[in-house]
């Protein structure tokens, strides 16, 4: 499975669980760590975990098992490392505090099509 396919299923899962202000950045040729970075916000800690679970469910449905999750049950930020795609899920307050988007300013921001 290529990184674009992984990005597609991750974005679908985020959309299905109503992630807010979702942004994706194409970092190919810019970062050696990942091809794509995604950031989204959740209205609550419960929604944050629902989005993460939806991404993992999509990974399993696509027979993709190469992932890791960083963060705990009480976290306001979860990172899902899908290899060449990294998804960051924040509560609104945590996202504003960390402002990760500034790290990816050299990448190309992708247009995300909402279903």
TrEMBL record:
Q: Looking at the record's lineage, which domain of life comes first?
A: Bacteria
Give the record's keywords alphabetically.
Cytoplasm, Repressor, Translation regulation
Q: Does the keyword Methyltransferase apply?
A: no
Q: What GO cellular component entries does it have? A: cytoplasm
Keyword presence, Mitochondrion: no
Subcellular localization: Cytoplasm
Q: Which InterPro entries does the UniProt entry name for this protein?
A: Iojap/RsfS/C7orf30 (IPR004394), NT_sf (IPR043519)
Q: Name one GO biological process term.
A: negative regulation of translation
**Span of the signal peptide:** none
PANTHER family in alphabetical order: IOJAP SUPERFAMILY ORTHOLOG (PTHR21043), MITOCHONDRIAL ASSEMBLY OF RIBOSOMAL LARGE SUBUNIT PROTEIN 1 (PTHR21043:SF0)
The record's annotation in HAMAP family points to:
Iojap_RsfS
What job does the chain carry out?
Answer: Functions as a ribosomal silencing factor. Interacts with ribosomal protein uL14 (rplN), blocking formation of intersubunit bridge B8. Prevents association of the 30S and 50S ribosomal subunits and the formation of functional ribosomes, thus repressing translation.
Q: Which family does it belong to?
A: Belongs to the Iojap/RsfS family.
Q: What protein name does the entry list?
A: Ribosomal silencing factor RsfS
Q: Which organism is it from?
A: Lactobacillus intestinalis
- List the gene name: rsfS
């Amino acid at each position: 499975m290529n990184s674009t396919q992984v990005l597609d299923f991750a974005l679908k899962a985020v959309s299905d669980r109503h992630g807010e202000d979702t942004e994706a950045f194409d970092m190919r040729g810019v970062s050696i760590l990942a091809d794509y970075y995604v950031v989204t916000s959740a209205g609550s800690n419960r929604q944050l975990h629902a989005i993460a679970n939806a991404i993992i469910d999509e990974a399993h449905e696509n027979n993709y098992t190469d992932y890791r999750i960083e963060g705990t049950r009480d976290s306001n930020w979860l990172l899902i490392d899908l290899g060449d795609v990294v998804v960051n899920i924040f509560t609104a307050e945590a996202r504003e505090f960390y402002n990760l988007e500034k790290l990816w300013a050299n990448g190309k921001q992708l247009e995300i099509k909402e279903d």
